[in-house]
Write a structure and sequence with these properties.
- The chain is built from 10 helices and 9 strands.
- With 255 residues, the protein is an alpha/beta fold.
């Protein structure tokens, strides 16, 4: 039984609308769903140790409180998938990405490894930014040095900036853009990648998963993630990325 059903059962017992203790048929006829046999055994056990109907109703409410905590957490964490799906009720990554952008009132923080077809992938974000001038958007992307590329790091950044402006960003107002300069180290052993994929709305909602900022990842690839509406969780993720920016691990891309 869920927390609502347990509280309803406690109400019926306190109001003496059920005999004490009720049997499975009486529970069924009262409109309560769930596992009747287990509930009857629980109440019969309470009676066997001397519990009254009122004390048993209190016990049911305590169980309901604990169950409600788990239900709240379960409701705050949604699995998110891309690609083929054979399980009903699974949420699509593209839908979750749009939804979390819509949840933001003050700020959006996005980190990603690959960005392709930005005019489509980032269209909703750009529209949201243009519609809400006060919305602060931070986008952290990987700027990579291709194998064998011996170009100056600033030349790679300049080429990335040009591509972002001309081919990837569809809005009038650009986000604040950051990257990890270690990704441009000439030595492979010193090189790193910004591989995290997260989207955080304010400090309340977070989307964490395997999907890159590409149409394939949002729609066709087999990707898995979670959408979490727990402020403590979202706030800690945001705090980590903001600390990387504050400590100079992630630095601005000049747009």
């Amino acid at each position: 039984m869920n927390s609502r059903e347990l509280n309803f059962l406690a109400d019926l017992i306190e109001a003496e609308r059920l005999p004490w203790p009720p049997d499975a048929q009486q529970l069924r006829s009262s409109g309560i769903a769930g596992d009747y046999e287990d509930c009857c055994q629980l109440l019969a056990g309470a009676l066997a140790v001397g519990s009254t109907s009122l004390s048993s109703a209190w016990m049911l409410r305590q169980i309901a409180k604990e169950r409600a905590k788990g239900e709240a957490i379960e409701g705050a964490i949604q699995p998110v998938i891309s690609g083929p799906c054979s399980v009903l009720g699974m949420r699509g990554t593209e839908d979750a990405f749009r939804d979390i952008i819509d949840h933001a009132t003050n700020s959006i923080l996005i980190t990603g490894f690959a960005l392709h077809n930005g005019p489509s992938v980032l269209a909703h974000l750009a529209q949201r930014m243009d519609a809400r001038p006060a919305l602060d958007v931070v986008l952290c992307l990987d700027v990579s040095r291709l194998p064998g590329d011996t170009s100056d790091s600033q030349a790679i950044i300049a080429a990335f900036t040009t591509r972002f402006r001309q081919a990837e960003w569809p809005g009038r107002r650009a986000p604040r853009l950051f990257y990890d300069p270690r990704s441009l180290a000439r030595g492979v052993e010193e090189r790193s990648a910004l591989h995290a994929k997260i989207v955080i709305a304010d400090s309340s909602w977070a989307l964490v998963g395997s999907a890159n900022l590409t149409e394939a990842a949002l729609k066709r690839n087999i990707e898995i993630g979670v959408m979490v509406s727990l402020p403590a969780f979202a706030g800690r993720l945001r705090g980590h990325v903001e600390a990387l920016i504050h400590n100079g691990i992630l630095v601005p891309v000049p747009l």
